[in-house]
Structures are given as structure tokens and as C-alpha cells.
Amino acid sequence: MDRIPQDLIRSLRKLGLLESEAKIYVSLVMMNNAEVKELIDFLGLSKPSTYESLRSLEDKGLIVLVNAKPITYQAVPPDIGLEILTDTYVKAKEDAKDHFSTLDRSLVMGQVTAQSSDSLWFVFNKKSIDHKIRDMLRNAKKSVFLIASDQYVKHFTPLANTNLDLDITVFSENPRVERSLKKIFKSDRAKVQVISTTKVVGVLSKLNSLYQKEFMQPLEETLLMLNFDNMLFLIVDDAEILSLPALSGDGIVAFNLRNTHAIANMKLQYKDVHRE
Question: By the 8 A CB rule, do 268 and 167 touch?
Fold first, then answer.
């Protein structure tokens, strides 16, 4: 069993295979083709489990029956097999999105319908934040307003090839970041600037002190102790916001909201200050 890399088995399981299916598929790739008896002896699986997994792998298109007596299977090449698994996942994702869009919440919780979904906050943990960012940017129709650290540059540089109205502020201490962004974003529709972390601290202290100057200095001192590498403030189409605070550690969460009035107010505050 040690001859089969466990990291590979875990990867295939994440792509939707059961552990027995993953082990049989990898074994067939290693052997080129094998009889059922050889697979049972090699893997130590039970006969029923082996036959059930073989049928499932054949239905998925990952293995092919090459001989009926004795029953012998061959694996499709890994590059094709992985494409099959990926396509299956993508199709399942699209089907699930369609089904989620038709869910009737009133069937389980009548009071939910009385509360606008626009007022609900959704929370994303560290693992799902990148997926949410990509999803928001991919579905943007009109505009993107972004204030973020340079670690998120990889997500929004593809926007340079779109017709979206872009207002992007990146904070970074690396001078190459600004040169790179100016080269990438050449459209008149794109407003892109790079500012230092010190400027960001000033922005946030003004916002959080509600412009009361006596609170700004202690706030700035506190904010300087935060980790701005994680911070992100993203608004798409003036209809959805994703906010990630400047905190450290694995417990980081992002807050997501669809409320046009709240978004307009927050965007106005940021625009008023960060252009100063």
C-alpha cells in the first residue's frame, strides 16, 4: 500500500472519488491494465468493494474494460481522467447554483421572506475568501471599486482587459507594484493608484474617528499595529461589498453584504478620504 502516494489519493478524493475508487484508479495507472484478482491482491480490498468501485469508475469514464475473461480493466491516461473529474465538478457546480436559485425559503422559515436578503451579512473564512473575490470579479457587469493590499493584485489584473469602470487603490511599499499596474491598466476607464501603508492608516483613522480630530492620533497608533497585508474593501456594481479587516492569524473572516444604501454610504466615505 505504501507504493501508492497518499497525497495523490487525497487529491483524487477532493475531486469526488471514494478512497477505494482512487486507489483502484491509481493502481491501474501504475499497472497499465490488471485483472480484478490482481487488484484485490495488490490493494487488499474486499471483493464486493472492488467490483462496486470498478463499476463506478467505469460509469465515470475513468477506466475501460479490455477483456471479459478474465475481467481486465485499463485506466484512461491521468491527464484525461483529471479533465473528466474536473468537468464533472464544474457541471455539478452549475447545476447546484441553478437549484439554489430556486429554493423557496418560505417553506421552512416564513419570517425570512419578511426580511430582505439585501440586509443579510454573509461571513467567509480564510479558505473561501479567494473564491468569493474571484466570483465577485468574474460576475461584475459595470464597475469595481477596490481598496486592498498588494497580495490581491493577482485577482484584479485580469480586469484590465474588460470594459468595466475601475477605481482601484492598492497599498504597498514595493515601488515595482506601481510601475507594473501602470503598465497593465492603460484604459481611461481605469483609475489605479498605489499608496503607502501610512496613508491607509490615515484613511482608516479618519473614518473610524468620524472626523473627530482628538481621536485620530490614538487610532493611528493602534492601526499601525495591525496587519494590512490582509485588508480588502471590494464593491462590485455598487450592489455587493466584501470587507476583510486588517487582522492577523488564521481566524480572519470577511463580511459580505448586499445592501445598496449601506454600500453607497461606505463607498462615499472611502472615496472622500482616500483621494485626499
Answer: no
Bridge partner residues of 243 (DSSP):
233, 255
* CA–CA separation, 161 and 189 (whole Å): 11
Q: What's the pTM value of the predicted model, to 2 decimals?
A: 0.58
**Which domains are assigned to the chain?**
6-80 (1.10.10.10), 119-274 (3.30.870.10)
Phi, psi of 195 (to 5 degrees): -125, 165
Sole residue written with cell 466570483: 135
- Count of CB atoms situated within 10 Å of the CB of 15: 14
Neighbour order of strands in the sheet with 165-171: 121-125, 253-257, 240-244, 232-236, 143-149, 165-171, 190-195
Angle at 118 between CA 106 and CA 145, to 5 degrees: 150
Give the span between the Cα atoms of 158 and 40, in whole angstroms.
49
Question: Is pLDDT larger for residue 72 or for residue 230?
Answer: 72
What are 120-157's pLDDT values in tens digits?
A: 556 666 667 888 888 899 999 999 999 888 889 999 99
